[in-house]
Design a protein that fits this description.
Blueprint: H1 2-25, H2 31-42, E1 54-59, E2 65-70, E3 74-76, E4 82-93, E5 96-107, E6 110-113, E7 116-118, E8 126-130, E9 135-139, E10 150-151, E11 159-161, E12 168-170
Antiparallel strand pairs: 1-2, 2-4, 3-4, 3-10, 4-5, 5-6, 5-7, 7-8, 8-9, 11-12
Length: 171
């Protein structure tokens, strides 16, 4: 009888854990996430360039400067693997984001900082990611919906100067 009780208890714990996990996956977007995705749409860009899970979002319409704060650094795995820092910044104008910081795209086994994103002609169905050495192009359909983002403990944050040595290191 004790064996059966512990088995029932384990099943209940598993079901409760699954319910909590599914509830998190189905969570409604925050007001900040909705605002960010609306700004993308209003500028002719797909909503899925920024992930679900945006905790705070600011946008200055005069300069186009924006900042999206995520709940945590994360990785979105879909047709294109992207990593997001806890903060993503850039300047948005119609059909493009320039001076981008905080997004990395994977090519083969390497991660490259995405410096800018642009859609030349929306009807072409193509979006371009500038990763410094080359422009990667992808179908716009890859970015129709904000991707779920799994928290990541290791994120490349980009180069910065270290105090006193004049060198560059990754944060």
């Amino acid at each position: 009888m004790a064996m059966e009780s512990s088995r029932v208890l384990m099943i209940l714990v598993a079901v409760a854990a699954a319910a909590v996990w599914c509830g998190e996956a189905e969570a409604a977007p925050t007001a900040a996430a909705e605002a960010a995705h609306e700004v993308l749409s209003a500028h002719g860009l797909p909503r899925g360039l920024l992930p679900a899970g945006i905790a705070a979002f600011t946008h200055d319409p005069a300069t186009g400067r924006f900042e999206a704060s995520l709940e945590a650094p994360c990785t979105a795995k879909a047709e294109v693997d992207l990593r997001y820092n806890a903060t993503v910044t850039g300047e948005i104008s119609y059909g493009q984001i320039s001076n981008l910081s905080g997004i990395y795209a994977q090519d083969l086994f390497l991660w490259f900082a995405v410096l800018s994103i642009r859609v030349d002609v929306p009807s072409s169905g193509v979006i371009y990611f500038d990763v410094g050495v080359v422009f990667k192009h992808f179908p716009l359909s890859f970015f129709e919906a904000p991707p779920p983002c799994v928290p990541t403990s290791f994120i490349l944050l980009g180069p910065h100067k270290q105090a006193g040595d004049g060198g560059t290191a990754l944060q």
